[in-house]
Design a protein that fits this description.
Length: 315
């Protein structure tokens, strides 16, 4: 049985949960690789990645390469003398990096591969109305999320759940799965399964302005899934217009009302407390939203300070 010397690579909060579990299970982490510091927000203050914050708190050796093929970085990585690398929500690695450790480099991906390879697997599973998802560990190869699978763990998606809640559950499930994977590697009991290719594999495309915009002509369930799948970040959005004014609105929470009506699709129907938007065969009731320049709030709070006319539209 070979004692593991691990280099961990990751950037966001999701990766921190996994790294923390590895440390708490007394594995030796000889180095952490994370994204370079970036200016963020209005003040353009330098922001550390969540993984960097954790590494500094726990005195873990830290590298922040801008170029993963840089000779200096490769030498520093080699000097850490790791025999295994773990990647969680980082970026694509060049072959020279993933081939370096004797026991290989494995990735934890937040989907049941081969479905939802790509940048936003948690979001797309909800957006597409999946009833189950999970996590998969696999050895990295030269394409994105295509390597030989080691383990996968499955969980049901609650119909009320949003991406933030599913993210937190998959972080815990992922932590358990990584520890089980480490045990298999350490004891020499790893067996892998090659991912089967087929034409109906679903992809977790990168989220952008276009695919986060609500199309009110879609079915109520498709719209609600988009809102859940993008909440709390980056948030589904729509234009609202009323009395020659237009706003770009983020919607974080909604519910479906099944009801026949004769309103035009996208009509905004408001009372003092409630806001509904007419869709096919019913309404989307908006429960939580954000107007430009305002904080996120309950719809009832917004309607205390703003009144919409009968001509108001969402589009």
């Amino acid at each position: 049985m070979e004692k593991l010397r691990i280099v961990f690579m990751g950037t966001p909060e999701f990766a921190v949960g996994i790294l923390d579990t590895i440390i708490k299970n007394s594995y030796t982490v000889v180095g952490v690789i994370t994204a370079a510091d970036k200016p963020a927000g209005r003040g353009q203050k330098i922001k550390y990645s969540a993984v960097k914050e954790y590494a500094l708190e726990h005195n873990l050796p830290l590298l922040q390469p801008t170029n993963l093929k840089d000779e200096g970085f490769l030498q520093e990585l080699k000097n850490l003398n790791a025999n295994l690398q773990i990647v969680v929500a980082f970026r694509m690695l060049p072959k020279v990096v993933w081939e370096m450790p004797k026991l290989g480099t494995f990735n934890l991906h937040a989907s049941l591969l081969p479905n939802y390879r790509g940048a936003a697997p948690i979001n797309w599973a909800i957006i597409n109305g999946e009833v189950k998802t999970g996590v998969t560990t696999f050895f990295i190869d030269d394409k994105i999320d295509t390597g030989a699978m080691i383990m996968s763990s499955e969980t049901a998606i609650d119909p009320e759940e949003n991406a933030g809640q599913l993210h937190d559950r998959l972080m815990h499930l992922g932590s358990d799965t990584v520890i089980k994977t480490l045990d298999l590697i350490e004891t020499g009991n790893v067996t892998t399964t090659i991912q089967e290719e087929s034409s109906d594999i679903k992809t977790a495309y990168k989220l952008n302005k276009e695919n986060c915009k609500i199309d009110w002509t879609k079915s109520a369930s498709e719209i609600n899934n988009l809102i859940r799948g993008l909440s709390p970040y980056p948030a589904a959005w729509s234009f609202f217009s009323d009395k020659n004014e237009e706003w770009n609105i983020k919607i974080y929470e909604a519910k479906i009302i099944d009801e026949d009506h004769s309103y035009e699709i996208g009509s905004l129907i408001c009372t003092k407390k409630e806001m509904k938007i007419a869709v096919q065969k019913g309404f989307i009731q908006v429960l939580n939203l954000q107007f430009p320049g305002k904080k996120r709030m309950k719809t009832s709070e917004l309607l205390n300070g703003i009144t919409f006319s009968e001509q108001a539209k969402a589009y």
